[in-house]
Amino acid sequence: MTELDGGGPSRLVARVSRFGDVGAMVLAREPVRPPRGTEVVVRVTHASLGATDLLARRGGYALQPAPGFVTGYDFVGELVTESAVSVALGLREGARVAGVLPRMGAHTTFLTLPATLLVAVPDGLDPASAVVLPLDGVTAARALQLAGDARRVLVQGASGAVGMLAAQLAQEQGRTVVGTASPRSRDAVAGLGIPLIDHRDADWPALVREAAGGAMDAAIDHTGSPRVREALRERGILVHTAFAGRAGHERADTVRGGAAAAVSRTDRVCSAPLYVATRRPEYRRVLAGLLASAASGSLRIAEPVPFPLTEVWDAHRAAEEAAPGRKIVLTMR
Ligand SMILES: NC(=O)c1ccc[n+]([C@@H]2O[C@H](COP(=O)([O-])OP(=O)(O)OC[C@H]3O[C@@H](n4cnc5c(N)ncnc54)[C@H](OP(=O)(O)O)[C@@H]3O)[C@@H](O)[C@H]2O)c1
C-alpha cells in the first residue's frame, strides 16, 4: 500500500453523493481499512462499470436504498497482503486476482476483503478483458443453475452484458436457446448462432415459441414484463435477474416482483451478490471456470472500453450509451 496521504495508506473511491445524473458521482480519498483476521488487501487495477452501477447511481437499485456508497461489484487487481486463507487458496502476495463483492464498493484503488472472494486470473487473459466477466458471468451462470434442467431457454436481452454470456453458457450446456434483441443490437450477437427475436415486435412471445419449435421451458429475464410468461410452457421457470422494464420504477418493481417470486412455484430471483455472499466455494469454482473459458477463447466476452477512475464522470456517460458487446472498464493505473 503506497498511496500515502498524511501518514496512513489511503485509497481513492468513486462515491454516489446523491441519487441522480452523472454529476452525482464524487471522487474521495479515505483511509485503507487494515485487514482483520484472514482478510487481505488488493490493489485494484480494473473494475467494470455496468447497468447496475448506473441504476444504483440513479437510485433505482433496491440493494442500495441510500446514497453515500461506492459503486462497482467486480474487480481485477493484485494481492498486496496475503493471509493463511489466501495462501491455502494458492494466492500469494503479487498474485493477479479477480472477484465479485457481495456489496458494492469496487470502484476504488484498494479493497480490504475476505480472501475467499478471490480467484486467480489465468495467465494470458489481460486484466481489462478479465474484469468484464465476474459479475455478469456469475449472474449468467447462476441464472442457468436456477433454470434447472430446462431444455429450451429464452434469454431476454441476449445482446446485453449478462444476456450474451447466458446465451453462450446455455448453448454450451446443450440447451436450445432463443434470444431477444432489438435491431440495433442484432449484429453484436449474430455470431452466437441463436435465433433472435425483436422484443419490440407486438407478437414477440409467439415468435420466440415459433423459433424454438415449441414453448420455452425457462426464461432468463431482466425486464419483469408479464409477457415473458406467454413464451413459456405451463409451469415453465421464470428466472428474474432484474425488474428493469419500467424506467423510474425499478426499485418498486423489484420489491413487488421479488415478493411475488418468493411465493411463486415457478419464479426464481437470481442475485449474484447473494450467491457470492452465501455460496462462496461454489462461486469461486464458477468464476474460475468462466475466466478459464475466456482465457482459452471458448467464451466470447464483451470488448472492454477503458476509462481512468479519475474520469469516472466520462465513464458513466459512456456507459449510458455503450454499444452492444462493449463494457466500460475503470482503470486505476
Ligand atoms: N441479478 C444480478 O445479480 C444482476 C447482475 C448483473 C446485472 N443485473 C441486472 O440485469 C440487467 C441487465 O444487465 P446487463 O448488464 O446485461 O445490461 P445491458 O448490458 O444494458 O443489457 C440489457 C439488454 O437488454 C436489452 N433490452 C432492452 N429492453 C428490452 C426489452 N424490453 N426486452 C428484452 N430485452 C431488452 C438491451 O438491448 P436491445 O434493446 O438493443 O435489445 C440490452 O442488450 C440490469 O438491470 C442489471 O442491473 C443483475
Automatic annotation (TrEMBL):
<dbReference type="Pfam" id="PF13602">
    <property type="entry name" value="ADH_zinc_N_2"/>
</dbReference>
<dbReference type="InterPro" id="IPR011032">
    <property type="entry name" value="GroES-like_sf"/>
</dbReference>
<dbReference type="InterPro" id="IPR013154">
    <property type="entry name" value="ADH-like_N"/>
</dbReference>
<dbReference type="InterPro" id="IPR036291">
    <property type="entry name" value="NAD(P)-bd_dom_sf"/>
</dbReference>
<dbReference type="Pfam" id="PF08240">
    <property type="entry name" value="ADH_N"/>
</dbReference>
<feature type="domain" description="Enoyl reductase (ER)">
    <location>
        <begin position="20"/>
        <end position="330"/>
    </location>
</feature>
<dbReference type="InterPro" id="IPR020843">
    <property type="entry name" value="ER"/>
</dbReference>
<protein>
    <recommendedName>
        <fullName>Enoyl reductase (ER) domain-containing protein</fullName>
    </recommendedName>
</protein>
<dbReference type="InterPro" id="IPR052585">
    <property type="entry name" value="Lipid_raft_assoc_Zn_ADH"/>
</dbReference>
